[in-house]
Design goal:
Alpha-Beta Plaits, oxidoreductase activity, Dimeric_a/b-barrel, about 120 residues, EthD domain-containing protein, alpha+beta
């Protein structure tokens, strides 16, 4: 069973959205994906970059309060054991300790486990 980790990310105070996007897309992703433990257990890494005005307009158009997130990441691991191996690896821990203060102001994480129960799927 695969494990997915959703990461909601906001840039650090004083950092432009462009600088955040550039670092997250190139510096952070490149370093993360270069880690041997990540290469071993990561099946997929996706980033959703948003222009704040577009995201806020979409949220407001749905009657939602602006979330304040600058992007969302999704990391899929081969198993819970694989995710645990990544999160306990010293190379990963060193990378995260050095990397997070460079560009992240706040972050929330949610783990998705098990198979989803599809409640509805439109026929095409």
């Amino acid at each position: 069973m695969t494990v997915q980790l959703l990461i909601f990310a906001a840039r650090k105070e004083g950092m432009s959205l462009e600088a955040f996007d550039e670092h997250w897309r190139n510096g952070h992703a490149t370093g993360f994906l270069a880690l041997p433990i990540v290469k071993k257990h990561c099946l997929k890494y996706e980033q959703y970059h948003h222009k704040n005005t577009e995201r806020e307009q979409a949220e407001v158009s749905l009657g939602l309060d602006p979330s304040g997130w600058d992007g969302v990441g999704l990391v899929e691991f081969d198993s819970m054991e694989g995710a645990q191996a990544v999160f306990s690896d010293q190379g990963f821990l060193d990378f995260v300790t050095a990397e997070v203060p460079i560009f992240l102001g706040k972050m929330e994480r949610v783990i998705l486990m098990n198979e989803p129960r599809v409640m509805y799927k439109r026929d095409e």
